[in-house]
User: Fold this.
Amino acid sequence: MDMILNALKYLAYVLIFPGFLFCFLSGLLLCGIDRKLVARMQKRVGPPILQPFYDFFKLCGKETIVPAAANKFMFLMAPLLGLAALVVLQLFIPVFQFNIPAFTEVADVIVILYLLLIPAVSIILGGASTGSPYAGVGLSREMVTVLACELPLVLVLLSVGKVVGASYQGGICFSMTKIVEYQMSHGSLITHAGLIPAAIAFLLVIPGETGNHPFDAAEAETEICEGMLAEYSGAPLGVFKLNHGIKMLTMTSLFVMLFFGGLGSGIESLVALVGLTGTAAHMVSVLLAVLLLFLLCVIVTAVGISLVHAVTARLKIEQIFKYYWTVVSGLALLSLVLVWYGL
Amino acid sequence: MFKKLIAESTGKSPWLFHINAGSCNGCDIELVSVLTPRYDAERLGFKLTGSPRHADIVVVTGPVTQQSLNRVLRSIEQVPDPKCIVTMGSCPQSGNVFRGSYSVAGPLSKYVHVDVDVAGCTPKPEAVIDGLYLATQILAEKRKEMKK
Amino acid sequence: MDFPFVKEAISKLFSKPSCEMYVPDKTKLGAPNYRGRIVFHPEKCINCMMCERVCSGNAITHVIEKTPEGEDKVTRTFYLGSCTFCATCMDFCGHGAIEFTRDYHMIATKEEDLMVSGTFIKKAPVKKAPAAKPAAPKPAAAPAPAEGGKVIKPRDDGKPVQVPSKCVYCTICAKKCPAGALNVDRANKTWELDEDLCVGCGTCSDACPKKAILMPGDEPVTEGAPAPAPAPAPKAAPAAAALIQPRDDGKPVQVPSKCVYCTLCAKKCPAGALTVDRANKTWELDEDLCVGCGTCAEACPKKAILMPGDEPVAADAPAAAPAPKAAAPAPAPKKEEPAPKAEEKPAEPAKPVEPRDDGRPVQDPAKCIYCTICARKCPVGALTVDRAAKTWELDESMCIGCGNCYEVCPKKAILI
Assistant:
């Protein structure tokens, strides 16, 4: 009986919160807010905030064309693989102090780092399976972008781990739970002077990792027909668009958890102040925590994705690589050095 | 519920694919101007895509030259249903001043069913939005018929 | 690295968007002078088909059906899907039947929605009833029996007819014809109409300086005028050795003894073929430009220009006067009447007042009664006469020496 209940509980975790349904709704909503913000920054009215939902449902209603040259299984499974990886990834990111021990205790930042690669790999797999020359160009660019982002991301996670690890057993701490716990007691990591360059570097990594505007050479619709997505249509394309939205949510919530994790510390006492106790108090505080997380995600999106999108033009692939391995990596490295010497 | 969502969304998210079939570039420029801050067709969900596989509305400009005919038809065939074909400017509708030229294979309606004609040489951006708006309505109707 | 638009993006985020909100409004109009949907006014159309000929997109077509009454029912169609909106058809339409509106909403799901058409009945040309123009039959009837010539009537199919006796083959009609239906050869004196090309627009008739082209509704004209006119010329030719003969190629000839170089002829010349210099007393004709229309001869206040059919004139003015008298029958002598009188005057005077030698008038104060008639008749307003103060003033810079003042003076108080 317990087993069945547990199974149902975990199913609810995976399917509803913080799994698929939450990812679906907030990812697409975040995507819509991003489009609206970019439009407003360009002095346009912009699409409705629900536009990504319209796009997704419309794509579900369209005919799905599978190219004759494509490997049908790979072609159709690739977007789902990416979606699964992202949903799992979201399970490993705690919502402030509220986490699901069964997930967050088994996985740490290293797992998140690997899982972040899978959506990129899925899009490369899907594109490669079509045999389209545009996809070929696109996937080589996607690989370069992923490589370019990986170095600064690792350096940022190392510096964060070093700061947190120093106060525990020493060395480097990679546990997400520990990182958040540390922030609960010591205040958000953004206030740590040595980590400010790392925070800026992570902010700059977000659009590259999600494939947003100045770093979207891999999906350049005007030059290589959307690259790896060139042959996709209908529902699989919709899932790829959904993956993009969820990836934005994942990256921004990871940023929030790494650098603003301490902001949720007051939630439980606030709820207690109102007079709620027991399960109700827990539910309300989780809800408040989620709302706070989403709000912070929107702010990070506005600064890290929309503003960058609105003021820049698309970079060439070698420019992206150079930029990430010099400027962004330099910032992250500076932070690591500062942290290493205890600043 | 899922089907209802799809039916409602179809008309609200029309993605455009633009084919230049030997156009003088006048219509091409006006089509892009539709997406500028002044007219901002993205407000209605319009988006220019790079691949015909992603498109809902195909906008054809130019008199459909012999060179482009085969490519135009292949591109249109690649658009998944429901789709809508819009001719922009006089050229794809009749050939305009190029009518009767040895190198012109048009008008487009000889080869595929054209849903909306936007006349003008070149049409005003407002007229283009007019035409595309009509196309979205046709698109939604086509989706309903597809279900039956 | 420099991001100049960061500040702008943030400020725009909190300012009003600059979009023109789209509303599906079919009544919205384009900017002034926008060339949008065509409106055709069939009631104004004369079916000249110029619009179809000039249309670059072949957007204009027509269908003609015969009605039971034998009239043509014309349906003209403008296919906006083939139109370049260049408005050349509107420019060429002489009757304003084509109009471009500011309506830019030309959206269609069917080809028919882009068709603009109009139907009208092209009436058979109406033959003018005698009552319509009472003056009409009289001139037509009167000369006809007298000369026995042939009467040229306008055609009833709307196309032009030439009156050979009036035509000077100046080719202006051919140049103006929008359809290129006229072929006029000045050297061979031929005037040909291409019936297929002619659209019956009447432009040739309007352009003719000699009114030598008849259109439906014009008065019939009697042929035969030129026959008697050239006759006197050869007769007069042997009479005097130094006669100035009118040319036989239809172009004007100057009579230097009469010419006062007033430049009126040059001003009136429609072709700009005359160059007259008042200071140097030169009169030059550009043979290539001259169309032989005779406007210069009509404009000349001194009758110093001879056209074919005029009497030859002696090179030295006073002596030549008797010559025209020998050949009386032509209408020309009437016009020449002042000439002999003019010649008598300068011969007569034994008065202190001498005529000037620059062709301008001189007042004889003894005879002048300051009636101001001369001032009123002066074509250039060069004379100022004050009856009360008894003054007579000539503005020398304005006077063209035409002699009108001399001719009208009731007291013969002006000397030339």
User: Anything to note?
Assistant: DSSP finds 14 helices and no strands in chain A. The first helix of chain A runs from residue 2 to 15. The mean pLDDT of chain A is 83.
